[in-house]
Amino acid sequence: MKKAASLLVLVVMLITVSGLASAQTELSFWYHGAGNTAEGEVFQMIVDDFNASQSDYVVVVEDFPQANYNSSIVAAAAAGDMPDIVDIDGPVFANWAWSGWLAPLSLSEGATEGLLPSAISEYQGDLYAVGLWEAAVAVFARRSVLDANDIRIPTLDEPWTADEFDAALEALQATGEFDVALDLGMVWTGEWYPYAFSPFLQSFGGDMIDRDTYLTAEGALNGPEAVAFGEWWQSLFERGLAYGTSQDGADRDTCFIDNRCALQWNGNWAGAAAAEAAGDDILFLPAPDFGHGNIIGAASWQLGLSATSEHPEGVNAFIEFALQDEYFVAFSDGNGLAPPTKDAAGLTMNYSSGAAMEVFYELSEAQGLVRPVTPGYPTMALIFEKALADIANGADVQDTLDAAVDEIDQDIEDNMGYGFEDM
Amino acid sequence: MQSMSFASQQRLSISLRYALLILISLIFIFPIVFMVMSSLKPDLQLLRDSASLRAFMPVGDISLNNYADAFARVPIVQFFFNSVFTTAVSVAAALWLNSMAAFSLAFLQWRGKALVLSLIIATFIVPFEVIAIPLLMVVNNLPWLGPEGFEIGWLNTYHVQIIPFIADSLGIFLFYQYFRDLPDELVEAARIDGASIWQIYARIIMPIAGPILATVAILKFLAMWNAYIWPLMTIRSEELRPIMVGLQYFFQLNTAWGEIMAYLTVVTIPVLLFYLALQRAFIESIATSGIKG
Fold first, then answer.
1. Which of A337, A356, B13, B293 lies most in the core, judged by the most C-beta atoms within 10 Å?
2. Once rounded to an integer, what is the mean pLDDT over residues B210-236?
């Protein structure tokens, strides 16, 4: 009898426990970095901490390879099978919001306080995504090389002017010690082109689109400033100062480390390897100022809420939970990218005071300009990439930019202004 | 003297032919040698060696570290099993189904046969990319009766990676071509002897279809083993992913080239073994039917 009673109590307990467990709502979370062990472990840590911190929701992570993550999302949207929490690349979020795949976030007041502006993605007045880290680009250089050639070391406040930068490249090339004076990473096709090179255009005074209206690229991408940029860009390759579009991928990875290119335009994810190779000689320098400020691209991967999620309050709670310095630091130490807050930067291995890549946080803060926040960006980016490659290969600058403007404007018209205005 | 000269000419001709063949075989084998050698080197050395003949030699800092790292980064065993399972089932089912379809088209008389054959051939011109999204929507709404009961939607399963690819117009066409070249007397004699259609298919035709079975098996094997886009679209869980999707795990902000080469070496070995096992029948099939896979 006693045994039977004990058994009954056990069964009741099990039913209660399983009932409690099933009362938790599952939130699916798709992450773009399958194979990125360090980053994945931090996400798993956040998920585990969040799941343990409350009893309403259980977040489950599924990771996907980055190269085709967007295709997986497109397929999921087509099948009506989107996850609750979505990982989004910064420049793409406006397109996904416009496509109806994302819903605005409702975070508590002050939740995004202290974040770099580029880590906060807003479209048409609504917040759609927030980032847990930031990428930044700089000119990698060796102090000894610049000193030996009497080249001034630029600062954020006093970056190289266009003339100074050009003279430095000519001087470095003239030494004959390097394959090229500057490695731009032309072999990295895809998003690298608009991310890394459109800031040059913007610094010349042009842009990929007219940001006042987002309805045309006329004037911005083919005006006198843009043409001046295009001619300078083309001259880099004509004068043999930089590797062209046929660059060997191996050169991109090794030329600066092996001291075969004097300067390299590269991101903070490559900073640790460069610092290791150059030691104390390493310099991470701000972008040159071609007349309209020294600018670098901004906005990396971020977290958002799927429009089909039935549990937006749970998703908001999770994203808000993830916005902690502890996690920013863990990501930065793991993936080498900059944290999105100043406080966190001070606690990281690479970006704290005196650390090798400290300057990158300042670069992001001072120079970061997000790519055009419009649903038309993915198409625009492809057109811009092709135009830059064509110009690098000798195409007529004005004709190429005019053609790019026509294509971008046609796409905007085909999509009825992408919601900026009824056309 | 003349016969000596002729013998010399013969030797020279053979030598030249072998030299040419050796050169061609080197061109084909170099990428594989590069892959295996690179899999043993650290990234920086691999990249530095890539511009010289050192790329094809086991020199410098040689180790199996890339293999260890690749296995740590990707659940290779799980992905390998998934690919072997989906490929094996697909190949077996495709051989059976497509050969039966071709048998029907080649030997049975039924109305609309020519039209059906034309439609099957017409699908050659439709690339998979065109039907991918519609196919995704279809499989997402199909019913399935599994261990967990009746459910709607095939996403995130093994069968979504197999069933849509069993029926294959190229496979049917290849079988049909081969069957048509067989003498009609074979089938007629079997019919006179009282064999049923199934018996003719299973006991008369299939036993002599070895070469074409090998050809279709190799083509289907390659297509399934290299499956990439479809699994990306339909599979959410890592536990169900095939091996080619795993290749993308290495393309991070800093690409792990050595690990990629190690992974590719592991992935390529089964393909080579499968081809070598069926090589003789495959070549025979090409020689007899004029098919170029």
1. A337
2. 92
A32 CA to chain B: closest CA distance, Å? Answer: 10
A167: contact with B, CB 8 A cutoff: no
Q: Residues of B with CB below 8 A from A64's CB?
A: 232
Question: What is the average pLDDT value for chain B, to the nearest integer?
Answer: 91
Return the structure tokens found at A71.
Answer: 């295709």
Helices (H) and strands (E) in chain A, counts: 17, 13
Cα dihedral A186, A191, A193, A195 sign:
negative
Gap between the Cα atoms of B26 and B125, Å rounded = 35
Band (pLDDT 50/70/90 cuts) for residue B115 is very high
Cα separation, A364 vs A154, whole angstroms: 16
Specify whether A305 is located in the same domain as A330.
yes
Range of the domain at A356: 25-135+299-370
Q: Which string of DSSP letters, residue by residue, matches A131-198?
A: ES-B--EEEEEEHHHHHHTTPPPP-SSSPPBHHHHHHHHHHHHHTS-SSEEEE--TT--STHIIIIIH
**Option in A71, A253, A267 nearest B47 (CB):** A253
Instruction: Compute the distance between CA of residue A154 and CA of residue A120 in angstroms, rounded to an integer.
Output: 29
Backbone phi and psi for residue A82, each to the nearest 5 degrees, phi listed first = -70, 150
- Whole-angstrom Cα distance, residue A20 to residue B259? 44
Domain co-membership, A168 together with A308: no
Q: Residue B291 — very low, low, confident or very high, per pLDDT cuts 50/70/90? A: very low
Let me know: does B174 contact B212? Beta carbons within 8 Å: yes
Same domain, B58 and B88: no
pLDDT at res. A423: 43
The dihedral built from the CA positions of residue A381, A382, A385 and A386, taken in this order, carries a sign that is negative
Residue-level pLDDT at B288? 59
Walk across the sheet containing A137-142 and list its strands. Answer: A180-183, A261-267, A137-142, A282-285
pLDDT at position B276: 85
Torsion on CA atoms B152, B153, B159, B164, rounded to nearest 10: 120
- The model's pLDDT over A88-113, given as tens digits with 9 standing for 90+, comes to 999 999 999 999 999 999 999 999 99
| Structural domain of B127 | 74-289
Q: How many CB atoms sit inside 10 A of residue B185's CB?
A: 9
B150's enclosing H/E stretch is strand B149-152
- Residues 236 through 275 of chain A touching chain B, CB cutoff 8 Å: 248-250, 253-254, 257-258, 267, 269-270, 273
Is the pLDDT score of B21 beyond 50? yes
Q: What is the pLDDT of residue B252?
A: 80
pLDDT for residue B224: 95
* Residue that the structure tokens 């971020």 belong to: A302
Neighbouring-strand partners of residue A58: A26
Q: Report residue B293's pLDDT band, with 50, 70 and 90 as the boundaries.
A: very low
Q: What is the DSSP letter of B200?
A: I
Using 70 as the pLDDT threshold, list the residues of chain A that sit under it.
1-22, 422-423
pLDDT of the residue at B254: 79
Give residue B241's Cα distance to chain centre. 18
Span B269-293, average pLDDT: 71
pLDDT of residue A336: 87
Q: Is residue B69 a part of any domain in this protein?
A: no
Cα nearest neighbour of B252 on chain A: A36
Task: Please report, for the domain that includes residue A46, its CATH number.
Answer: 3.40.190.10
